[in-house]
Amino acid sequence: MKLRSIELEVPDAEGAVRFLSSVWGLMDAGARKGVSFLRGTGPLPYVISLASADVRAVAAVTFSGEPLEIEQARSRALRAGARVGPMQSFDEPGAGEGFFLEGPEGQVFRLLYEKDRVERLPADRDRPLQVTHVVLNTRDREASTRFLIEALGFRLSDRTSFMNFVRCDDVHHAIAYAESGISSLNHVAFEMKDFDAVMRGIGRLKDAGIEPAWGPGRHGPGNNVFAYFVTPFGATVEYTTEVERIGDNYKVGGPEDWKWPPKRIDHWGVSARDTAALSEAEKQFTFRRPVL
Ligand SMILES: [Fe+2]
């Protein structure tokens, strides 16, 4: 199973699509019933969708896998007592078949398999490959982490003093939970081809008048290169690359393993962080409403 996409609702969906395609580097993957779909160069039908709505919201975070994986995940979630919706068909690129389930703080996850496959496009240093992780704020990160492990069979990769990193394949984290007073979207990370592609992305955003809110730098857990930006539509997005791939023998790290020297907030020590802008953006996207 892999993280496939995130579905967002925004008041100005057209503006968000314009930014994500002309500046961020995603490509048009079609529109249906007023919802716009954008893809990267990876072999996925789309990685983010934008629907118009009065208020900003996360409609779902979507994982995709083989039909058997999805069926087994559904059985497991039901056995774990999770709130699980019926199997259904989704009218969207990829023609997904799957179901919704709700996390302990109303997080809406969707698991599906795609009936229509799409080809990988040539990697491009100015375009994201795919979404590689979504970080969510939580009021109780341990309960939300337990849910992913027990209901979906995900695995804990690392735990710091304020975040838990959870994986569903060999990518160090697909979901990370940040300790917070609210349950909301912290940021969405888009994987770039290489280091050069991240740096070129920073340049492209600067050309559009947007400075990094944090970065460039290299994280501790996941060891990925990062640059964060607060978008004109209110969400924080990240260009990232060199995300660590790990196996079953990965030793789960704890807060003691992930300490920085005073004033250091990443491996390199050159990144500046606009905490005020990032904190404001973190309040913008909450989960829309229970779907079950
Ligand atoms: Fe990130």
Task: Sum up the structure in keywords.
alpha+beta; binds fe (ii) ion; 292 residues; ten-stranded mixed β-sheet
Topology, pairings included?
Elements: E1 2-10, H1 13-23, E2 27-32, E3 35-39, E4 48-52, E5 57-64, H2 67-79, E6 83-84, E7 88-89, E8 96-102, E9 108-114, E10 130-138, H3 141-152, E11 155-159, E12 163-167, E13 175-179, E14 184-191, H4 195-207, E15 214-218, E16 225-230, E17 236-241, H5 275-282, E18 286-287
The site of fe (ii) ion has 6 residues, from strand 10 and strand 14.
Structure description:
The chain has 292 residues and is of the alpha+beta class. It has five helices and 18 strands. It has helices at 13-23, 67-79, 141-152, 195-207, 275-282, and strands at 2-10, 27-32, 35-39, 48-52, 57-64, 83-84, 88-89, 96-102, 108-114, 130-138, 155-159, 163-167, 175-179, 184-191, 214-218, 225-230, 236-241, 286-287. The strands form two sheets. Strands 1, 2, 3, 4, 5, 6, 7, 8, 9 and 18 form a ten-stranded mixed sheet that branches. A hairpin with a 5-residue loop joins strand 8 (96-102) and strand 9. It is globular, with a radius of gyration of 18 Å. The structure holds fe (ii) ion (FE2). Fe (ii) ion binds next to strand 10 and strand 14. Fe (ii) ion binds at residues 133, 135, 187, 189, 226, 238.
Concise description?
The chain is of the alpha+beta class and 292 residues long.
